[in-house]
Amino acid sequence: MKTSTFLKALTVAFLFTSLISCNNDTNPGTVFGIFEVIDEQTIEMNGEIGSAALDDFNELVDAYPDIRLINIAEVPGSFDDEVNLEVSAAVNRRNIATHLLEGGLIASGGVDFFLAGTTRTRGENTMIGVHAWSDGTNEASDYPRGNPNHQPYIDYYQSIGFTRAEAEAFYYFTINAAPSSSIHYMTEQEIEQYGILRP
């Protein structure tokens, strides 16, 4: 049985549309770990930062090099502090902005990641939580001020634009605000005092 002219035309139209879609550089909904592509300049982030986060981010920006904004929904912390600082620094080097979405939450390593944004903004009803890190045996606050264990975090804050005084002030505030088993949600005054936002 012969295919009708109408069906042939419909098939050609479908193939043409598919070809255009395949050639589009942006594929909304593409997921790289905790990062999801929204459009060619925007990604959304949701979940804890694990050991694969840096590789996922590098793969993402290789595929979508024009990313300029990370919208954060909920990032309650990190499983791997070293990787977290590395991926956060990578975000800052690429001059990417961070935005905490309305109703969003960042805590612990999620706050460090948010601070990497070259501009840092937030929606309404957000929560920003900090606490001491733990190596499984010792709390950050167990080490005296100036101990080398503190330095990676202070160096990181300086690398993203904090002065040394600002880096130390914020870091020591966080590790004394709450133990690793708890969380302190920053007040509006503290958010302003430590320069968390940068419009």
Would you write up a description of this structure?
- The protein is of the alpha/beta class.
- The chain has one domain: Alpha-Beta Complex (2-enoyl-CoA Hydratase, Chain A, domain 1).
- Helices cover 39% and strands 20% of the residues.
- The chain is built from seven helices and eight strands; from the N terminus they run αβββαβαβαββααβα.
- α4 links the parallel β5 and β6.
- The longest helix is centred in the first third of the chain and has 19 residues.
- The chain is globular.
Helix content: 25-40%
CATH class: Alpha Beta
Number of spatially distinct domains: 1
Give the strand content: 15-25%
- The averaged pLDDT comes out at 89
- Supply the number of helical segments: 7
C-alpha end-to-end distance: 66 Å
Global geometry: globular
Spell out the CATH superfamily: 2-enoyl-CoA Hydratase, Chain A, domain 1
Classify the secondary structure makeup into a structural class.
Answer: alpha/beta
Largest sheet: 8 strands, mixed
CA gyration radius, whole angstroms: 21 Å
In the CATH hierarchy, the third-tier topology is known as: 2-enoyl-CoA Hydratase, Chain A, domain 1
